[in-house]
Amino acid sequence: MSARDSDWDGVRLHVVTGKGGTGKTTVAAALALALASGGRKVLLVEVEGRQGIAQIFDIPPLPYEERKIAVAPDGGDVFALAIDPEEAMLEYLEMFYGMRRAGRALTKLGVVDFATTIAPGLRDVLVTGKTSEAVRRRGKDGRRVYDAVVLDAPPTGRIARFLNVTTEIAGLARVGPIKNHADLVRGVVTSSETAVHFVTLLEEMPVQETMDGIAELREAGLPTGGIFVNMVRPTLLPEQTLRAAEEGRFDVGELAVGLKAAGLADGPDDAAAIARALAEEVVEHARRTGLERTERETLAEAGLPCYELNQLADGVDLAGLYELAEQLCEQGVA
Questions:
Q1: What is the pLDDT of residues 288-333, one digit of tens each?
Q2: What residue stretches are annotated with the ArsA/GET3 Anion-transporting ATPase-like domain (predicted)?
Q3: In contact, 186 and 144? CB cutoff 8 Å
Q4: Residues 6+ apart with CB under 8 A from 311
Q5: 77-82 and 67-71 beta bridge pairing
Q6: Coil, helix or strand for 227?
Q7: Which one, of 163, 174, 153, 125, lies nearest residue 46 by Cα?
Q8: In angstroms, rounded to a whole number, what is the distance separating the alpha carbons of residues 32 and 30?
């Protein structure tokens, strides 16, 4: 990969969200690899307890600790962290109250689960707080420990509430360590160092949810990033042919003659039958291409950088993940 300016120079926290089924975790993992390329150090964080990172990198389930999981293209390291809200609560109690041992007892009594159930905003503060701490953390030499942090965040429908921690926690604590902690988190997620990226498919429902999510973030004063269109299928036919098929002008007879001339059919009847079957496929392909064109136009209205990731023929394995990271680098993401 050649060195080039990134579209996201200065951004250190990349929050990745998307409608379920769009490949959010896959894109977050590919983005982490891309950002780490060339010798950088990136932390990939998940907060939903699904162990999606472990699955996609084909490694054992992750504990609640930061550990190296991959080497990026051209060098660079990707570390991963699966945040456990209970462990984050214990860390919080120790940090602000020196109560880790007491916190262990509280977890046995179910108090931690009770607290995060009646105050779900507290759970969000705990997991985003851990991520924000990683963004701010510096080593003994005074340099940032991570060049970037990628957060595999909750789905689009919950992302604004998840990130808008000050509002969520306001009814829980107006002063004290919890309030201060929430303010520190909000200071990170609302800064120019943060970008919230949306993963979508070229389909009506995920595109509409993406547009709604962008509008909600903007209304909440939270920073929008880019749009990552995942699982893009190639356009197999020339534009002229697609237009003709969409408008009902596709010449089946001409196709039959071509099949016969190429020796792909035994006779006129066989050629006609194959041509009719192929014509149906062409019309369906043209229809899908037209719908995808419309969805691209809708996404363009958001005015955000847009990146496309090709659908992988063999599915998402580790080699495919590196291929997606390469595509992101080529498009200027990193």
A1: 888 899 999 999 999 999 999 999 988 889 999 999 999 999 999 9
A2: 13-170
A3: no
A4: 231, 232, 233
A5: antiparallel
A6: strand
A7: 153
A8: 5
